[in-house]
Amino acid sequence: MDQLPIIDISPLYSDNQNAWPAVAAQIDQACREWGFFYIKGHPIPAQRIDALLDHAQRFFARPAQEKLQIDITQTRHHRGYGAIATEQLDPDKPSDLKETFDMGLHLPANHPEVLAEKPLRGPNRHPAQAGWETLMEQHYLDMQALAQTLLRAMTIALGIERDFFDSRFNEPVSVLRMIHYPPRHTASSAEQQGAGAHTDYGCITLLYQDSAGGLQVKNVNGEWIDAPPIDGTFVVNLGDMMARWSNDRYRSTPHRVNSPLGVDRYSMPFFAEPHPDTRIECLPGCQDAQHPAKYPTTTCAEFLLSRFADTYAYRREQEAV
């Protein structure tokens, strides 16, 4: 248990539907044993990743006052720039040594859910950087499609309708995030990590990480193992929402990022989450007399907001007003 599985998902993009069950079985095993795996054979081109990385490096190199023009703490729908130490993923450690940019599904100001002031709903807030908005909006859509392809494969093992997740990901609250981790010597203390130990909140995460390394995953023996960068892959992991949906058949696994020595690290996670009103309740095939449902029914929005309040001080302050 010292190496995450690597799964070739290219058969999911072939015309041969008979190839799906073998890939689905590999994904199912990885979700049960690890909650983490790599995928290769996906349709996101290397040129896209290079362009995104170039934009991220240029954006995060800007002066703080320029980045703070889209300060995430000044919004109610969690879009824009998060300064270093805005986030605290491990409550027992100092706030994280990273800065971020978050975007979601762009909903215009006149959208009914925006007018109703529904949480996590609204327009994206992009920096004034030539080419950024077009690139990011397209990548968001492509990553959403990739995530739903993986979820479609999971339905085979979970024994649910092939369109179960597709029907629940209409106008999703998925998030595309860019992260910059400064070198470790810039930390405020020896205890400050790039990202403290945590489990992800939502359904499924797809992560691009650059060559700097630093991601670690806790295996079933409670040991931290490295999840090193592998060219042409995404790291995929499950979040707490999927664990609830599957009655813990699928694992939501703790992970962390140790800031690298002497270099900057960049990563781009995509957090795939359903429509905010989606009911999160135990799937029929994941419960029986010996394994009753462990968790009460909730909604996507209720669950995510409860986790946000634990992580972001500014969210707690907003809710207290």
Structure description:
Helix 1 (20-33) crosses helix 5, helix 2 crosses helix 5 and helix 8 packs across helix 9. It contains nine helices and 14 strands. It is globular. Strand 8 and strand 9 (224-226) form a beta hairpin. The protein starts with 5 loop residues before the first strand and ends with a helix. The protein has one domain (6-320): Jelly Rolls, CATH 2.60.120. By secondary structure, it is an alpha+beta fold. It has helices spanning 20-33, 46-60, 64-67, 112-115, 132-158, 164-168, 240-245, 300-311, 313-320, and strands at 6-8, 36-40, 80-82, 99-103, 175-181, 195-198, 204-209, 215-218, 224-226, 234-238, 255-257, 265-272, 279-280, 298-299. The chain has an eight-stranded mixed β-sheet with strand order 1-2-10-7-12-5-4-3. The protein has a four-stranded antiparallel β-sheet with strand order 6-11-8-9, with no helix packed on it. The mean pLDDT is 92.
